[in-house]
Design brief:
It contains six helices and five strands, in the order H-H-H-E-H-E-E-H-E-E-H. The chain has 159 residues and is of the alpha+beta class.
C-alpha cells in the first residue's frame, strides 16, 4: 500500500490542491449573485438592468450632493452612475466578497481611461450592499485610502 510519502511530489501537490480547492469554494448566494449582476451592468452601461436590481425603497446611505431634494433615491443613484461610472466607462472588478445575512460587502477595483488621464491607474473601494428579495435596498461606498492611488483620487476630488 502506497502512502502520500511514496507518491511523486507533483501528484501529492495536485491531490492537496483538489482537496483544499474543493472545500474552500463556497457557492454564490442569491445576494452575491445580485451584486455580480449589478457590477456587470455597470461595466456594460446597462441602465435598465441597474434600475431593475434596485428596490423601489432603495436608499443611498451617503446621498450624492448633486441630486435635487425632490429626486427619489433610486433616481439619484442612477443619475450619479450616469454622471460618473457610466460616463467614464468605468470597469469594475470584484476582488473580494464577504456576506453576513443580507449585507454583502464587496471590494472593487475601478479602472477607466478618465482615471488614467489623471495619472491614476485604478482606485479601490469597498461597497456595502443590503440585498433583500433579489433587490438592492441600500449601498454605501467607502474609498480605500490606504491605497496611494485611491488617496490621490480622493485628494483630487477635494480641489
Amino acid at each position: 500500500m502506497r502512502t502520500l510519502l511514496n507518491l511523486p511530489l507533483v501528484l501529492v501537490a495536485s491531490l492537496l490542491i483538489s482537496i483544499i480547492g474543493g472545500t474552500a469554494r463556497a457557492e454564490t448566494t442569491p445576494e452575491v449573485a445580485v451584486i455580480q449582476r449589478y457590477v456587470a451592468a455597470i461595466n456594460d452601461a446597462d441602465v435598465a438592468t441597474i434600475r431593475s436590481l434596485l428596490a423601489d425603497d432603495f436608499q443611498m446611505l451617503r446621498p450624492w450632493p448633486k441630486c435635487k431634494e425632490n429626486l427619489a433615491p433610486v433616481d439619484c443613484h442612477i443619475k450619479m452612475l450616469k454622471d460618473t461610472a457610466l460616463r467614464d466607462r468605468e470597469q469594475r472588478t470584484i476582488t473580494a466578497v464577504t456576506q453576513q445575512l443580507e449585507t454583502v460587502r464587496v471590494n472593487l477595483t475601478i479602472a477607466s481611461k478618465a482615471l488614467q488621464r489623471r495619472g491614476i491607474e485604478r482606485i479601490l473601494i469597498t461597497e456595502e450592499f443590503v440585498v433583500l428579495d433579489d433587490k438592492i435596498r441600500s449601498t454605501l461606498v467607502t474609498l480605500r485610502t490606504e491605497d496611494e492611488q485611491t488617496r490621490r483620487y480622493r485628494d483630487g476630488l477635494k480641489r
